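S1.2 Input.
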Amino acid sequence: MLVRAARRAAVASAAAPRRCTARRTSTVGDNRVVRLQTEDPRMSKIVIHNGVVYTSGQTAGDAGDDIKSQTQATLAKVDALLKEAGTSKSHALSATIWLKDINRDFAAMNEVWNAWVDPENKPVRATVEAAMARDVLLVEIQVTAALDKNPFEDLNY
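S1.3 Output.
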């Protein structure tokens, strides 16, 4: 299946045991679409198509009430999603960041972002102010990345 070997390698290299996630595969034209972490009735957390990994927006309202803590926890979730998909932040193509209060939190969020991002492989990025789905949320981050290798390399059909 698509990214089978990449997922096996990611799972094998994980230090902690990983929970099994739902997976769905469909075909769009000649390209397979793989959807991971599909338990939520509204969305998949990861979609892989044509060598590109799309993640859903991640938040961390339970990480504290300051922007630095929430940004660090949110980026840790992004790292975990990218790893499960078979890629990493070094292959990030784009990032969209939504801040509840851009005037108050932009500089502090950037400090955390700058420490996280691969300085040799920075993605394009947009940051905007937006109303959040829950009052406790200060930041939401969505990342799109390329797979580490050819997604069709291990297909058996």
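S1.4 Remarks. Helices lie at 4-13, 67-85, 102-116.
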